[in-house]
Amino acid sequence: xxxxxxxxxxxxxxxxxxxxxxxxxxxxxxxxxxxxxxxxxxxxxxxxxxxxxxxxxxxxxxxxxxxxxxxxxxxxxxxxxxxxxxxxxxxxxxxxxxxxxxxxxxxxxxxxxxxxxxxxxxxxxxxxxxxxxxxxxxxxxxxxxxxxxxxxxxxxxxxxxxxxxxxxxxxxxxxxxxxxxxxxxxxxxxxxxxxxxxxxxxxxxxxxxxxxxxxxxxxxxxxxxxxxxxxxxxxxxxxxxxxxxxxxxxxxxxxxxxxxxxxxxxxxxxxxxxxxxxxxxxxxxxxxxxxxxxxxxxxxxx
Amino acid sequence: xxxxxxxxxxxxxxxxxxxxxxxxxxxxxxxxxxxxxxxxxxxxxxxxxxxxxxxxxxxxxxxxxxxxxxxxxxxxxxxxxxxxxxxxxxxxxxxxxxxxxxxxxxxxxxxxxxxxxxxxxxxxxxxxxxxxxxxxxxxxxxxxxxxxxxxxxxxxxxxxxxxxxxxxxxxxxxxxxxxxxxxxxxxxxxxxxxxxxxxxxxxxxxxxxxxxxxxxxxxxxxxxxxxxxxxxxxxxxxxxxxxxxxxxxxxxxxxxxxxxxxxxxxxxxxxxxxxxxxxxxxxxxxxxxxxxxxxxxxxxxx
Lengths: 302, 302
Hints:
Two copies of one chain form a homodimer. By secondary structure, chain A is of the alpha/beta class.
């Protein structure tokens, strides 16, 4: 199977390297690390065992990439507007596009642009980060939760099997919207608050005020999910807190972006879902307050 | 008229000096500035004209103060639990206690402790700060809004006249709860956000995200006021924004407290009113989020 990895960072680098390591023909799009990886290859330091790809197939531009059966989009959502139109030459007719990305509301955009392809969401429950050029450090978790537009069972089964064979635990979800909201259950409280309060995950679960705030936001997401017709069991929120309690102290991706001066996924993680819920009659006030604070911090330090 | 000023800082120092300057017998309680003021007196640099008191009557302890007709409590609300019981020796039977302080919910506590005295709230619409020992800098505004427990008209008229004669513009409010909420309309959005976003008032009104956030909190306070039976006209919130637009860029008192490592008036400005509204069926989510964030910042940097 020909696979394109659009964006070889903490997510694309990890899953792409696993797919290549298990024998697939993987084509990696790189930007700043291109020259380094050309010389030194890709390395994954994983708590499941380290491995490396000495000579991965790499590209500096989507125009040079071959048409693939599966295109994994693993750039930040802030780059979607630029990247989405470029996928036309990278995905085969009848192929699939898998959005390995945080956020909410982008699969319908892809489906409108690529009506002949299967459009899937991949929710990455993983702790990994780019640890220097061509190097991904994978510290915890790794499960991939998959869902498809129109619940496309064929594409789901095919891609789930592909990842499972590559050593990635997957689960298939029937409802893409609900699956996306489940991922927001972690991202909305912890990603933004780590930027606003300038701290790692451990402070967010250990400090009583931060624990109250993040749990209240999760409760709000449960209410919003119900209001938009994608109800989630309350124990799922408890499970996110428990996972974070047990996590190695961690800088969420939004904090890493903030500290590195990169754009923040504010619309992807906050704005789009806040608007979606509000259009369906539910106002997410806790999340809104965080969104405004993040917008201020981003403009101030950009 | 014998007047006690409990706490000679930006508020007590300013109003107390005006009352003394207009011929009243004013007794100032001082703490850290006692020795300095004993030698150099009190100075007010005011945009209405500078003046000073070379030999004010000062005290280092409430036990040494004479019983007074009017006791102005101008300490931070965080000191109320310590100061309130000490007022027994400072206020005459039939005298009045005026709480010149930000926050919500403390007059009923005073009324329970001092049932024979008139209990009043003084809402200080003023920009002033302590500019070194024995020196208050008054940069803008100055109006004092007065209200009494049980709408005690005699006490209100007497004390309003006293301040007016001292050159302080006053207005008398019939409903103490409503008057307190009007003051929160400024304090809840601007005091806390200046700490959370680490900025002065100008950033809070000029940055679009901060302007949206602070205006949304004001709208929430309007809804809460209505829910607790103290409805305030929406144009009052607009007026607070307009005042802040026109203000000299200013560090709200909570930010000064935070930068100086002093306790924050979180319960006074946030917690008490949030609880009051919630007990009456209205949940203030914007304000709650700010409260948790402030609690975290306070514990982190204390």
